[in-house]
Specification:
The chain is an all-alpha fold and 402 residues long. The protein has a single domain, classed as Na+/H+ antiporter like fold (Up-down Bundle), CATH 1.20.1530. Helix 3 crosses helix 10 and helix 14 runs antiparallel to helix 16. It is globular.
């Protein structure tokens, strides 16, 4: 087959198996995202290794699917932003700050302790902690949207905490790399902080004063799907600006773009169009691609205990750290555990940080699979854990005496 035919075959296989798996997990009262993640694991090198089937010999297939998946996560976070209002997030700033900060500090500290216990050098142990401090809220956002609780107090606190988490992890990582490489020290960290403020200021300014007027004007022009095209362009540019200008994750930029468009009169038209593109094509590819990028076969007895240890502290660090932060901010214990569980997934963010560690020689080839395994487990358990914590407890039967 030609490279193009190979690509459309692989996309067709991913879409049909993802939708089928999502349907099956729905039958057992679990979010469809869990099925899509599992089918990705089955199609990936852990089981079927679809990218290395004999008739799929184009070496660019994996990279192309990865890029489509990255578009999917940007669209997913844009849709999450569209469903919210800035005023709602503003009312949850305190819980977002406390849960976000505690959700970084505790996992980083626990991860550092695990590294020291396994004989890592101080720099490698600290970097291990940083990989555990990251979070990927896209998995949780999709799960909460499916359960129609994204706009609940927990959902709003979770999204705000993820933003604080992203900012703090980037600052800590920048400080670590700057000091480790001797490239500017605290001055370089201060510059990163200035870039973040610059990005947030520019994105807010455009969102408040330019986008509403621009979208309204384009909606009255004889352009086919003009407003939808504008929304797609803006969310991509916000994603680019988040990384290039702010030094933050691109998903933070697309989420902010969604928040900005949520204020426009064209919100519903944009939401219908972007949702159709996202859930019909790009988002399933994103969830399946997570499984395509990990290989559970790389885990062996030598790194088993490291894998178990970092997975345990990765789960408990977010659950307890973010949970306690939410509790201190006034959430009930149930709401606190719900928010903490939503912060557990590391997803694509954890994989990116692990790759940085490999490129900077802060992680060995034997440690990398353990980190990847942790990312996979935390990503897989988040949807069913959220479903369990959000399910209404059954009323206790009252015994009636005769």
């Amino acid at each position: 087959m030609t490279p193009f035919l190979q690509l459309i075959f692989l996309i067709s296989l991913i879409l049909i198996t993802a939708k089928a798996a999502g349907y099956l997990t729905g039958l057992i009262k679990q979010p469809s995202v869990l099925g899509e993640l599992l089918i990705g694991l089955i199609l990936g090198p852990s089981v079927l290794d679809v990218l290395h089937w004999p008739f799929l010999d184009d070496h660019l297939l994996g990279e192309t699917i990865h890029h489509l998946a990255e578009i999917g996560v940007l669209l997913l976070m844009f849709v999450a932003g569209l469903e919210l209002h800035l005023s709602e997030l503003a009312r949850n700033t305190r819980v977002a700050a406390l849960a976000g900060i505690m959700g970084v500090v505790l996992p980083v500290g626990l991860g550092y302790g695990v590294g020291v216990a396994f004989g890592f050098e101080a720099s490698a142990a600290l970097f291990l902690g940083l990989t555990l401090g990251a979070t990927s809220v896209s998995i949780s956002a999709q799960t909460l949207m499916e359960m129609k609780v994204l706009r609940s107090r927990v959902g709003l606190g979770l999204l705000g905490a993820a933003v604080f988490d992203d900012v703090l992890v980037i600052l800590l990582l920048s400080a670590f790399l700057a000091l480790a490489q001797g490239s500017g020290g605290l001055g370089a960290v201060a510059w990163i902080f200035v870039r973040m403020l610059l990005f947030l200021g520019l994105s807010a300014g455009l969102g408040f004063w330019v986008l509403p007027r621009l979208s309204h004007k384009i909606s009255h022009l004889p352009i086919s799907q003009g407003v939808l095209a504008l929304a797609l362009v803006v969310l991509f540019l916000y994603g680019i600006a988040a990384e290039v200008v702010g030094g933050m994750a691109a998903i933070t930029g697309s989420f902010l773009a969604g928040l900005m468009f949520a204020r426009t009169p064209e919100k519903e038209r944009i939401e219908r169009g972007v949702s159709a593109i996202s859930y019909g094509f790009f988002v399933p590819i994103f969830f399946v691609n997570i499984g395509l990028t990990v290989n559970a076969r790389d885990l062996n007895a030598e790194m088993l205990w490291l894998f178990v240890a970092i997975t345990g502290v990765a789960i408990l660090g977010k659950l307890i750290g973010s949970g306690l932060g939410a509790r201190w901010a006034g959430f009930t214990w149930r709401e606190s555990w719900q928010l903490g569980a939503g912060m557990i997934s590391r997803g694509e963010v954890g994989l990116i940080l692990a790759s940085v560690g490999m490129s900077q020689n802060l992680m060995t080839a034997t440690e990398f699979p353990a980190i990847v395994g942790m990312v996979l487990i935390t990503t897989l358990i988040t949807p069913p854990l959220l479903r369990m914590l959000f399910s209404e407890p059954k009323p206790r039967a009252i015994k009636v005496e005769k």
